[in-house]
Design brief:
Elements lengths: L13 E3 L2 E4 L1 H13 L2 H7 L4 H15 L4 E5 L5 E5 L1 H22 L8
């Protein structure tokens, strides 16, 4: 009988004050906002309602203590949303954390006998 190679996976999220702050879904939402310049489009890309996306953004902004997403209302171009420098910094730090964790997990890849 051939043994299947074990694989270790982790989902990482950061909490502030016992509340979720940043995790994989929220990071993807922020990245989509940066890509599309729209909360609505970013939400639809992750199969999320606009209302849910906006609530997550409000929660993240409150937990961060600063604005991560700046919403631009109306105007000739119809408004949109952009990441602030702080929002970009949060994404960068989270992705760096993921890389460091993946690097640490590689030490155990294929060595688990479970």
């Amino acid at each position: 009988m051939k043994k299947n190679k074990s694989e270790i996976r982790l989902r990482v999220w950061i909490e502030k004050g016992d509340k979720p702050f940043i995790g994989p879904g929220r990071i993807t939402l922020l990245e989509n906002i940066a890509t599309y310049g729209s909360i609505s489009k970013a939400a639809s890309e992750v199969d999320m309602s606009y209302r849910k996306a906006w609530q997550l953004i409000r929660d993240m902004n409150a937990s961060a203590g600063s604005v991560l997403v700046d919403r631009q209302i109306g105007g000739k171009t119809g408004g949109g949303a952009v990441l602030t420098d702080e929002g970009k910094k949060v994404i960068k730090q989270y992705r760096q954390l993921e890389k460091e964790i993946d690097k640490a997990l590689k030490k155990y890849e294929g060595k688990m006998t479970i």
